[in-house]
TrEMBL record:
GO biological process assignments: RNA modification
GO molecular function, one term: RNA binding
NCBIfam families according to UniProt: PPR (TIGR00756)
InterPro entries: PPR_At4g14850-like_plant, PPR_rpt, TPR-like_helical_dom_sf
Protein name: Pentacotripeptide-repeat region of PRORP domain-containing protein
Keywords: Repeat
Species the sequence originates in: Gossypium darwinii (Darwin's cotton)
Length: 92
């Protein structure tokens, strides 16, 4: 996956592409990158996260031992992400 995904030309990214990116981040334990791409999916590309995207976040956070954050997302996905994204700096 490299260290940074760069999109240099306008394109249409599908929600499945972001699920693949999140899974890759999870398998590589790239928490900061995974959260950044999740946020970019919503903010930059206007893709509304589905339960499969939140599941990837739970998996990512669980793999690196951030169980409290993973449980927040699992129990209340849309509400919990707001607090998770604001604490991004404390995770990495």
């Amino acid at each position: 996956m490299g260290h940074q995904m760069q999109i240099t030309e306008p394109c249409s990214l599908h929600h499945v592409v972001f699920m693949s990116i999140l899974l890759a981040c999870s398998n590589s334990r790239l928490v900061e990158d995974g959260l950044k791409y999740f946020k970019s999916m919503k903010d930059d590309f206007g893709i509304k996260p589905g339960i499969e995207h939140y599941t990837c976040l739970v998996d990512l956070l669980g793999r690196v031992g951030h169980f409290n954050l993973a449980l927040k997302i699992e129990n209340h996905p849309r509400d919990a992400y707001a607090s998770t994204s604001s604490s991004l700096g404390s995770i990495a």
